[in-house]
């Protein structure tokens, strides 16, 4: 820079000595214009040097492996028009690194520990990716909780069925004095064989009392047909028993929720679950409380 200044001064001296014959005003105007243009030229000479320095600073950022220094650079020089090119480069590099990190975490298990680690390391530079990972974890946790509740409801429903079978057997035994012994034995066989899931023999034992209007036998016929995937028969028997049987009403709700033998209809399913719950079916009430479709994990609307 000193060399350029001496050059300007030297040229100025020559001009002054060569223009002694000019009038004072013309000389002053010419000299002022010259020095103004010379100053601008010297200023432009320094511009490439500044850009080189800025580019070198950015390259230093890129050479190190951490991402937060890039974010700090962007915040420090935000709005600096002279660094527009460098800011764009740093922003692109940060996005690239965030993408690499997101792919790395996508391959890891969705656990509370991984969420905490992701947040601790990258919340400053990749906040959107971090929160997306956290949301995936929360959704997974909710699904697991729903599955546990549904499993508990299913277990409770099975217990209820066993209790009802015992109650029905006791009631039938108490009424055995007024019922032919063959019919009483048939009912006992129906309840026991269904409870132990011997469906082929249970069908034979349950059919006659079911056709004669025994609600429990009708419910058992529906349960057996459903287990054998004879959905039309299951729906027919369940509808016969549903006015008095929570198990039958719950079974119909499940069929509509799953679209088994009928077109899936969540609103109709919900109505049947409500009827089953009103008849004391704990599993149906749990389904309504969790607001999810049985065995599918989808919401019942």
From TrEMBL:
It comes from Marinobacter nanhaiticus D15-8W. Pfam families: Sel1 (PF08238). PANTHER family: ERAD-ASSOCIATED E3 UBIQUITIN-PROTEIN LIGASE COMPONENT HRD3, SEL-1-LIKE PROTEIN. Gene3D superfamilies: Tetratricopeptide repeat domain. Transmembrane segments: none annotated. Residues 144-156 have a biased composition (Basic and acidic residues). Residues 144-165 are annotated as: Disordered. PROSITE patterns: PROKAR_LIPOPROTEIN. This is Sel1 repeat family protein.
């Amino acid at each position: 820079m000193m060399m350029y200044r001496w050059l300007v001064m030297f040229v100025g001296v020559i001009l002054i000595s060569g223009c002694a014959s000019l009038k004072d005003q013309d000389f002053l105007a010419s000299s002022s214009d010259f020095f103004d243009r010379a100053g601008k030229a010297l200023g432009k000479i320094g511009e490439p040097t500044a850009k080189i320095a800025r580019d070198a600073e950015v390259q230093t950022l890129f050479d190190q492996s951490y991402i937060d220094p890039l974010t700090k650079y962007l915040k420090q020089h935000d709005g600096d028009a002279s660094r527009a090119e460098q800011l764009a480069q740093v922003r692109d590099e940060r996005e690239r690194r965030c993408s690499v990190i997101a792919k790395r975490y996508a391959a890891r298990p969705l656990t509370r520990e991984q969420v905490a680690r992701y947040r601790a390391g990258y919340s400053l530079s990749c906040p959107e990716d971090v929160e997306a990972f956290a949301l995936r974890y929360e959704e997974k946790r909710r699904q697991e909780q729903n599955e546990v509740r549904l499993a508990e409801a299913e277990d409770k429903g099975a217990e209820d069925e066993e209790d009802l079978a015992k109650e029905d057997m006791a009631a039938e035994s108490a009424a055995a004095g007024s019922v032919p012994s063959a019919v009483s034995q048939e009912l006992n066989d129906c309840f026991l064989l269904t409870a132990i899931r011997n469906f082929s023999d249970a069908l034979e034992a349950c059919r006659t009392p079911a056709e004669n209007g025994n609600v429990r036998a009708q419910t058992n016929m529906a349960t057996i047909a459903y287990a054998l995937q004879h959905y039309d028969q299951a729906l027919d028997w369940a509808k016969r028993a549903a006015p008095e049987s929570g198990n039958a009403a719950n079974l119909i709700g499940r069929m509509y929720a799953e679209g088994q033998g009928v077109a899936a209809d969540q609103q109709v399913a919900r109505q049947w679950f409500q009827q089953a719950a009103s008849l004391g079916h704990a599993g149906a009430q749990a389904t309504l409380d969790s607001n999810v479709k049985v065995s599918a994990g989808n919401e019942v609307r």
